[in-house]
Every structure is written in structure tokens, then in C-alpha cells.
Specification:
- The complex is a heterodimer of chains A (about 525) and B (about 425).
- Chain A is mostly helical and about 525 residues long.
- Chain A is built from 27 helices and eight strands.
- The longest helix of chain A is centred in the N-terminal third of the chain and has 18 residues.
- The radius of gyration of chain A is 26 Å and the shape is globular.
- The N terminus of chain A is likely disordered.
- Chain B has about 425 residues and is an alpha/beta fold.
- Chain B is built from 14 helices and 14 strands.
- The N terminus of chain B is likely disordered.
- The chains are: A mainly alpha (about 525), B alpha/beta (about 425).
- Chains A and B meet through helix 1, helix 2, helix 13, helix 22 and helix 25 of A and helix 1, helix 6, strand 8, strand 9 and helix 8 of B.
Chain lengths: ~525, ~425
């Protein structure tokens, strides 16, 4: 259980916050200055004007160039010094991105080791089931291991673009986890997606639709010639490929389901997946522009052609590329960008790498820095990356490696745990609720104080964060901002830091100053609770 | 969604935040919910607060997510087509409750029988959208926007709340760890939190004032949804004490089932008891998407879900006691299921469905609506035909319980048919 590390806001402070938001003017600074007067009144020291929050000149630690920062914040879980160094070593952002598109060539020992942290992952489906039946671990717990492993990989891996694409495909071809008995095969589904994350969508779709995990989730393993189950047949069209706008009919849905018949899983027994020709629906089928006599009881060849047809459908190209653009560019990508990416996709025989290259090369991508709101899971991972935690191999449920998913959950999201086949939403409107923001503030406070979790994790000390002391507070703030957020310190950040700590900009900070002794978390949290940290 | 000025768009509202009453006035929609987990099902609750600190009428919209099978809940046993189409899953007429020769309720609804008999619970059969839509996601959006043909994504409850006080925008709030549902979606900022108890700002116990002040420096001028969300979060937390101080303990010896829906309705009753002006509460209950193992009276998904629904709603009315005279509950689902069972003893996505209306103002004990029949020629692509637009049911509730609301604005370009489910409609 997370400790309660805060107190309810006092009525007085609520009134203060209200007073500040009540000021309405069209220009930002004067009204903010008025707000600051109201806010800093009860605090120690004289009230400062905005002009007093001039940020000192740049420190020695140079920031990444804007292009590098933007690329890393979109195509990695967080900007980190190691990743900035990787970009430099690769010869620049473009070269780094090229490297990332061949992940097999990138050493990744620390991330590889994470697999052994969660022994349930390495079991076969049947072994997992037996473990569940024996009461050694529930399916639920084993799927929490999967979610923990995925979050730690995002935090750790050097193959960041690959990891981001695993996330993208997992959301498109969503198999909720944990969910009923879907979990038995869910780790294998994850591994299958990893194998195709930077390949052809045609190949990925072929594997996903045949996979027992998706078959269990959307009931296809129950669908036979005798009794069609339409679930996967419909969602294949709506969620996985062409989309509902293309205008397929109910007959198309039934035929889609018919093509999919024949797959089974030996449920609650061996869990073996099989294909049973006798259960395949035989006869003429037509879905949109696809048709086949479908006379062979083994319908897998027809299925291959059907899925290939869908993967190459212009509506699929558009839908897929729009989702990619929403994921990596902005909530509202232009029709021009989507159309041009769709052309690349179709011309490259559904290969995703050329599409990613075109996306990153587009002007629209380059102009979209910090325009995406981080999801709760992204916030949880990026916060740990920002405060530079060292996570240890877990020994128990309370250890940090097992708690990261709960931090995401406290903000509002668990990896793969979305209750419907359409996957998590990916726009700011979905993830900017007031309660989500309160959840983020709580998670940031926990990370800034190192108060949750406390086992199996270590945090840097205040002196690890600061420049050579003594120096003035404004210089400390500037130094921390650059190392935490990889942007220049703004006057708003400096003023928030002063208000949060009650320290004036030119106050000298010695090693025994209250900032170092006990106020440092207040500074850190004021910098994590910022638009700069909550966007990517 | 976004509010680039950094304010609610209503200066009066911004200035009046210091008082709890007017704070709640500004909070358009609040929600709370159970643990989000696909294994145990998902429940969200959302609440809208009235323009005054006290709501005379309260509407609880219980969404059966996933497409519930209305024919398993309000069983048309008098139509021979029912049993014929469902060799495995048809419910024997002898087991049904409150039978009237044509319809009977699912046996798991026994806890609701007293409400049915006292005239506080009614059903409407063969309701739905004007045209079939068997996609979960677009059907949900259609039902919750209730504004066909409009490109604006504004939910009908968002419109209803907005009409309480036309000059001001209201904030949409949701507790339940997810994203705003379409029915409350609209121009207002939104709130989402894990549960009622977690609505607070965490920070240094002895320097909370500074923490809040610093948040205001950071977020006071930030535009867009993110800035609005941050400001609303801080303000909500500051004013949440009235809710937290209301006991969580149910009244009148009400016993809720230990499920997501039970927890959520218990928290809903708490919000109503707190009397802070909750006017609209939405609860999502699901999944009712039973492609497989819909089951029989001995096992399966329908028995489980119907039982959870009946126990939770019955406990909710017991808990409310005299307050129930102000509360109307309506159930709604994105679509019904096919008439005939599929190969997995389940039902695929269909069309016509049933709705329930309970509580204040209901003319209960009856199944309303015109039954279209189950003969092949009566069906639409194998599905139950819709003879009553679902908006006609909502229209009667809004008309009789929320007289200040403009019905033509609530459901634009819509002419309702007479249903008769509400007294005075």
C-alpha cells in the first residue's frame, strides 16, 4: 500500500489558489504578477516582482539541441543523459533514428536481464495454468508481472523506438490483460508483437489474428461452421484494419467471421492451439472487395489472402497512418500528412519502417515539440527516469519493480488493462482530467521524496543534483531544470521553485542550507508538476 | 475541451470559488468508480452538480456497457419465436418473475420485485437507436451524444448540465481512473480520479500552502486541457471536505454486493446524502458483451451480471430511503443482441433492446413499448426491430423530473413518441 504522504489542502490555501485564478487579463505576465503578490504575501521574505525572477545565464552542461530533445521525447520513454549521449555517438538525431530501426544491432543487456526478474514470464501457457490451478500464483498476478516487465523495459531499454512501436501495435491489436482466461497465452502474444514491431503489418496481422490469445479474447476459438461467433470477424474490420467508416455490411461481418473459423484452443486442459478443418465454414465468401470460393476445408490459405487484402486496403493504410501520426506527431495531424504516410505504407508493401522515416522527416513532426500529453503510464515511467532511480531485482510485492504499475494506476492507467477491444485513447482530452492531474501530483511527490516505493529502489541525494556549492538559489534551480527536464529554466519555473521552497532567488545555498537538509523534494516536485514534464 | 483563457469562461464563477456552494455550482459533472479491471468488469460513475447546492431531482444513468441482451432481462416468453431461437439459453417461463402473459423478468431480478410491485420500476421493450449500429464504439457515441448528424462531440448529459445555468460553463468531473465518457463529453474541462478518498493534493504536510501556491504559479496561465485539468484538480481537492465528511456507511441496513457496481452505487448514495447538489450521476457497468457463455439460470455471464445489477440497485434504493423520492434511475445499453443464439451459446451484436426506469416519477409495474414480434419477417437482419426511440424514454424523464431543461436543445431535431413510463409525461 502506498503511504499517505500528504495532507488535505487547508481552506486557507484553497482561498489563496482561488484568488490567483480569479485574476483575468489578456496578457499573461501582469496578471501572474498580481497573483504572485496574493500568493507570496503570507510567505517569508519580501514580495518579489516578476522582473526579479531573471534566470541566470546557461550553465556548463549544455542542453540537447531541440531536434534531439523532440525526437527522444517522442520516440523514447524519456530524455536521459545516456540517450543524449547515444544520439551524439550515433552522429546526430537522424543517424540515431536509423540505428534504432535495426534494434537487433543495439546491445541491450540491462533490459534483457529484466526477463529473469519475473519467472512466470518464462513458463509455457500450460505451466502457467498449472501454477494458477495449484494456487502458487493467480493468472492475475502473472499478468501483473507482464505489465511490470513492460514498464521496466520502457524505463531501461536501449532499443527505445522498438519499444514504442510494441506499445503502438499492442494498442491497435489490443488484447486486454488481465482478462478472463486470455492471460494464459498473453505473454506469447506480447513476444509475437515484439518480433514484428518493426516489420510488415501484413505479417503482424497474420500472426495476431491466428494467435490463441486474441482468439480467446475475441471468442474466435469458439466460432465454428456450425455456430459462427462474429466477435473477431467484426473487430478485425473495425478495430484492427479498415475501420467502421469504410461502410461494410452485416453480411461482410458474417463472412469475415466465416473466413476465421477453424481455430481452437484446448481450454482449461492442455491449452494447445489447433486448426480443425471440419470446423471451418466452407463456401463462397465476400467481404468488401475480397472474395473467394473458399471450398477447401482448410481455410488458412483463404485467410492469408483475406488478411493480406485487409492489410493492403487503402482504408487500413489511412487508419493506421492516422493512428501513428496521433501517437507520434499530434492529436490533430493534417490530412496531408496522413495521406502521404498512407502512400508510403502502400508503396512499401505494408513495411512500417519507411512510414516511420517519412513521419520523422515531415515538417509537421518537427514542428510538434511538446504537443502530446503523456499518458499516466508514460508519466510514471518518465518520472522515474527523470529523478534517476536505480531499480533493483524484486524480492517481493512491495519492491519497486512490482510497484511501478501501481504508480501508473494511481495516476489512472495500467499497461494493457483497457476494458474494450479499441485500445486506450491517445489524445490530451482523455488524459487531462483534474483527477489525473491530482494523481500525477501525487506520483511526482512520491518520486521527489523517495517515499513510495521505498524497497528495492534508490534515489539520488540532493547533493547529486546541485552544482558546486555555495551558489545562489536561482543558479541551483537552473542547474536542476537542465538536468531534470532538459530545457532552459523559465521565469515561471524559478518563481514556482521560490514559492514552493520559500527561498529567494539570490539566497546563498550552502551544503547545510534548508534546501539541502530537507526542502529539496519541494523543489523537485515543483519542476515535475510542469507542462514541460507532462508533455512529450 | 480546452480553455485557453485559463479560466472557466465565466468570471462570476471564477470569483466565487471560495464558497463551497458556488464551487459545487461550478462543478458540472463528478464521477466515481470502482477499480478498473477487465477481469472483474469495469464501473465508472460520473456526477453532475446542480446550479444550486441542493438538487430536487437526481438522475442516475446506468449504462450497461457492451450491449446487454434485453430479451434475457425482460423475457418475451409469450412470443414463440423466443424459445425457438434460443435452444440453449432461453429461460423457462415457469422461472420468470412478474409475468404478464407476454413478458417476465429474469429470475435474478428477485431483489427488484418489491420495487416492481410497488410501481417504482418499469421496463420498456424494443427500444434503441433510429437505425441499427452494431459497432460498440460508434453505437455508444451515438447513444451518448443523442444528436444524430452533428459533428460536434457533445454528450446529452453535458447539454443537460449546461442548461442549469446557461451563462456559465460547468466543469466535468469523473472519479474512476479513466477517460470522460461521451455522454458527459463537451466543452467543459473534465475530472478523473481513482476514488473519492484520493481527491487531494499530496505534498509536504507542513508546507501545503506553499505547494498549492507554487502549483498556481506553474499552471495559472497554461492553456489547453492540461492547464484546465490542473487548476480544476487543485480547486476540487480544496473543496472536497464536504463529501469526505459524509459517512461511507450505507443507511437502513442496506447491503451492497462486494462488486464494482455495488461499491460505485454505495459511493453514489454517499454523494446524494452529502447533499452537495449532485444532479446527474452516471454509472457504467460492464461488460454485457456476451458472445460466449451467456449461460443459463445455473451458470454463465447473464446470471452473474443480472444478479449483480439487481442486488446493487435494490441496495441503492434501500440505502437512499426517503431520499429515493428525488432519485430516478434509467438503464441504457448501446445495442441489443441478436434474437438467435450463436455457436458459443452466446449472442452476437444486435439491435432492439430493453430499458429499465426506476424510482421517482415512474409509472411502474408494467412493460411499455410496442412489441414488434420475432417472426423472420418482423426482424431487421435477424435482430429485434426498434419500435421506440431510446430518446423518447429520456425525453419523458427530463420533461417530468427536470422541467427547467429545454427538451428541444437536449435532443435536437427529435420528435418523441408517447411512452407513458413517467407520471405526468
Amino acid at each position: 500500500m502506498p503511504p499517505s504522504d500528504g495532507s488535505m489542502i487547508s481552506r486557507r490555501s484553497a482561498l489563496l489558489a482561488t484568488a490567483a485564478t480569479a485574476a483575468t487579463t489578456t496578457t499573461a505576465w501582469p496578471s501572474s504578477a498580481a497573483a504572485a503578490t496574493a500568493l507570496t504575501g503570507p510567505l517569508t521574505g519580501p514580495v518579489l516582482r516578476l522582473d526579479d525572477y531573471q534566470v541566470p545565464s546557461a550553465h556548463q552542461n549544455a542542453l540537447p539541441d531541440p531536434k534531439t530533445r523532440h525526437l527522444l521525447s517522442r520516440f523514447s520513454a524519456a530524455v536521459t543523459p545516456a540517450r543524449i549521449a547515444d544520439v551524439k555517438a550515433a552522429g546526430g538525431p537522424d543517424a540515431w533514428f536509423r540505428q534504432q530501426l535495426s534494434p537487433g544491432n543495439i546491445p541491450d543487456h540491462a533490459a534483457d536481464d529484466l526477463w529473469s526478474w519475473f519467472p512466470a514470464l518464462d513458463l509455457t501457457p500450460l505451466q502457467r495454468w498449472r501454477r494458477h490451478e495449484a494456487g502458487a500464483a493467480t493468472g492475475w498476478e502473472m499478468m501483473q508481472d507482464l505489465a511490470s516487465w513492460v514498464m521496466l523495459r520502457r524505463l531501461t531499454t536501449n532499443r527505445q523506438v522498438h519499444e514504442m512501436m510494441v506499445d503502438f501495435w499492442s494498442n491497435l491489436l489490443h488484447v486486454a490483460s488481465p482478462s478472463a482466461e486470455v492471460w494464459v497465452w498473453r505473454v506469447e502474444y506480447e513476444q509475437m508483437i515484439r518480433g514484428h514491431a518493426l516489420g510488415r503489418f501484413d505479417d503482424l496481422l497474420q500472426q495476431a489474428i491466428r494467435h490463441p490469445s486474441l482468439g480467446l479474447y475475441l471468442d474466435n476459438v469458439e466460432s465454428t461452421a456450425e455456430g459462427i461467433n462474429e466477435n473477431l470477424g467484426r473487430e478485425l474490420l473495425e478495430c484492427h484494419t479498415v475501420g467502421v467508416e469504410v461502410g461494410y455490411t452485416e453480411k461482410d461481418v458474417v463472412n469475415s467471421a466465416r473466413i476465421l473459423t477453424g481455430f481452437h484452443v484446448d481450454i482449461r486442459n492442455t491449452w494447445k492451439a489447433s486448426y480443425v478443418p471440419a470446423d471451418h465454414w466452407v463456401g463462397y465468401v465476400k467481404v468488401l472487395g475480397f472474395s473467394a470460393p473458399n471450398a477447401d476445408p482448410d481455410g488458412r490459405a483463404v485467410l492469408t489472402r483475406y488478411l493480406s487484402y485487409l492489410a493492403h486496403h487503402p482504408a487500413t493504410a489511412k487508419r493506421l497512418c492516422r493512428r501513428l501520426a496521433v501517437r507520434f506527431v499530434s492529436d490533430t495531424p493534417s490530412a496531408n500528412l496522413v495521406d502521404s504516410l498512407a502512400r508510403v505504407y502502400l508503396n512499401s508493401d505494408t513495411h512500417i519502417v519507411p512510414v516511420l522515416r517519412a513521419l520523422v522527416a515531415s515538417k509537421e513532426f518537427q514542428a510538434a515539440a511538446m504537443r502530446k500529453v503523456r499518458t499516466p503510464v508514460e508519466d510514471a515511467v518518465a518520472t522515474w527516469a527523470a529523478v534517476r532511480v536505480d531499480v533493483k531485482r524484486p524480492n517481493g510485492a512491495q519492491d519497486a519493480a512490482n510497484q511501478l504499475i501501481d504508480i501508473g494506476k494511481a495516476i489512472g492507467q495500467v499497461v494493457y488493462d483497457w476494458p474494450a477491444p479499441n485500445g486506450f485513447p491517445d489524445v490530451a482530452a482523455a488524459w487531462s482530467g483534474a483527477g489525473r492531474m491530482l494523481g500525477s501530483m501525487r506520483a511526482h511527490w512520491s518520486a521527489a521524496t523517495g517515499s513510495w516505493p521505498i524497497q528495492g529502489i534508490s534515489f539520488p541525494t540532493p547533493l547529486d543534483w546541485t552544482p558546486v556549492l555555495p551558489t545562489t538559489f536561482d543558479k541551483v534551480v537552473d542547474y536542476v531544470v537542465r538536468r531534470l527536464l532538459f530545457v532552459e529554466c523559465t521565469p515561471v519555473m524559478l518563481r514556482a521553485a521560490c514559492v514552493a521552497t520559500g527561498i529567494r532567488p539570490k539566497e546563498m545555498i550552502h551544503k547545510t542550507h534548508a534546501l539541502i537538509e530537507f526542502k529539496f523534494p519541494r523543489l523537485l516536485v515543483s519542476l515535475l508538476d510542469t507542462p514541460e514534464h507532462l508533455t512529450r | 475541451m480546452s480553455n485557453t483563457s485559463g479560466h472557466s469562461g465565466c468570471p462570476e464563477y471564477d470569483r466565487s470559488l471560495a464558497s463551497r456552494r458556488s464551487f459545487l455550482k461550478g462543478l458540472g459533472v463528478i464521477a466515481a468508480g470502482g477499480v478498473v479491471s477487465t477481469m472483474q468488469g469495469t464501473v465508472f460513475r460520473q456526477t453532475a452538480f446542480a446550479a444550486t447546492g441542493h438538487a430536487n431531482s437526481i438522475l442516475v444513468v446506468l449504462s450497461q456497457r457492451g450491449g446487454a441482451d434485453g430479451m434475457s432481462l425482460v423475457v418475451p416468453y409469450g412470443d414463440p419465436g423466443y424459445a425457438a431461437a434460443r435452444p440453449t439459453i432461453a429461460i423457462p417461463p415457469s422461472q420468470l418473475l412478474e409475468t404478464d402473459g407476454m413478458f417476465g423478468l429474469h429470475p435474478s431480478f428477485a431483489p427488484l420485485s418489491p420495487l416492481w410491485r410497488s410501481g417504482e420500476m418499469a421496463a420498456v421493450q424494443a427500444v434503441g437507436t433510429p437505425a441499427p449500429n452494431r459497432s460498440h464504439f460508434s453505437a455508444m457515441a451515438e447513444v451518448e451524444e443523442a444528436h444524430p448528424g452533428s459533428a460536434e462531440r457533445v454528450g446529452w448529459l453535458n447539454r443537460m448540465v449546461a442548461m442549469s445555468e446557461p451563462a456559465c460553463s460547468h466543469a466535468a468531473v469523473q472519479v474512476g481512473a479513466s477517460v470522460p465518457e461521451t455522454e458527459i463529453y463537451g466543452p467543459q474541462p473534465t475530472f478523473a480520479a481513482i476514488d473519492i478518498e484520493k481527491v487531494q493534493v499530496h505534498g509536504p504536510v507542513n508546507a501545503m500552502q506553499e505547494r498549492i501556491a507554487a502549483l498556481d504559479v506553474t499552471w495559472g496561465q497554461v492553456g489547453g486541457a492540461l492547464g484546465a485539468g490542473a487548476r480544476l484538480g487543485v480547486r476540487t481537492a480544496a473543496n472536497w471536505k464536504a463529501v469526505l465528511q459524509t459517512s461511507q456507511k450505507p443507511r437502513n441496513n442496506a447491503t451492497y454486493p462486494a462488486t464494482d457496481l455495488g461499491d460505485t452505487l454505495a459511493e453514489s448514495a454517499r454523494l446524494i446524502r452529502a447533499d452537495v447538489g449532485a444532479e446527474v450521476i452516471t454509472v457504467d457497468h460492464g461488460s454485457w458483451d456476451m458472445h460466449t457463455n451467456l449461460g443459463t439460470l445455473d451458470s454463465g455471464g447473464m446470471r452473474y451480471m443480472a444478479n449483480e445489477l439487481a442486488l446493487s440497485v435494490a441496495a441503492f434504493f434501500t440505502d437512499l430511503g426517503a431520499l429515493a423520492s428525488r432519485v430516478t434511475v434509467v438503464t441504457i445499453s448501446e445495442f441489443g443482441r441478436r434474437v438467435a443464439e450463436n455457436g458459443s451459446a452466446g449472442l452476437d451484436h444486435g439491435y432492439g433492446n430493453a430499458m429499465f426506469v426506476l424510482g421517482a416519477g415512474v409509472r411502474g409495474g408494467t412493460v411499455y413499448g410496442r412489441w414488434p414480434g420475432l417472426k423472420p419477417a418482423d426482424l431487421v437482419d435477424g435482430d429485434l426491430r426498434v419500435t421506440t426511440d431510446y430518446r423518447s424514454v429520456l425525453w419523458e424523464i427530463a420533461k417530468t423530473r427536470f422541467p427547467a431543461v429545454s427538451l428541444s436543445k437536449l435532443f435536437p431535431n427529435f420528435s418523441p413518441e408517447q411512452v407513458g413510463v413517467m407520471r405526468g409525461a
